[in-house]
Amino acid sequence: MLIVITAHLSALCDNRATMLTPNEFRRIALGLQGAIEREHMGHPDFRANGRIFATLSADNKMGMVSLSPEQQADAMRANPEMFVPAAGAWGKGGSTMVRLAVADAEVVGEAMTLAWQRTLEKRTPAPLRRRT
User: Is 19 domain-assigned?
Assistant: First the structure.
């Protein structure tokens, strides 16, 4: 499925990037099943199944979608002007910043759907550590 969506992302990057407003980003996020808006560290976040899958920056210039590292690499390869990794360990883990000034709604919608789908994945509890 990732290959199909990646191909779709690539097909949509034909220099059609236009500004995506924060409200359009919000509309895309809240259009996904079970999505709710909350606040996290002073800015809006979007959650499903108790997990954050997207956020908006406090200045409304950037969004974030929580992709896998592989999905992040695909998105950045297809749309390097639109997607950049978040800083530090978050970025290495797949948190991907969206430059709203050059974002295309369809491409962001595809990436956000991937992020939302990740909230459906079953969480694996960390193994208990033994005291020595």
Answer: yes
Contact 15, 102 (CB under 8 A): no
Q: How many domains does the chain have?
A: 1
Write out pLDDT tens, residues 38-62: 998 889 999 999 999 999 999 999 9
Are the CB atoms for 90 and 52 separated by under 8 Å? no
Q: How many CB atoms within 10 Å of residue 98?
A: 27
Q: Which amino acid is at 90?
A: W
Task: Quote the pTM value.
Answer: 0.78
Residue 119: C-alpha distances to residues 47, 69, 78, 123, 130 (Å): 8, 15, 23, 9, 30
6 inside domain: yes
The CATH number of residue 52's host domain is 3.90.1150.30
Range of the domain at 41: 2-118
Query: Do residues 85 and 111 touch, judged by C-beta distance below 8 A?
Result: no
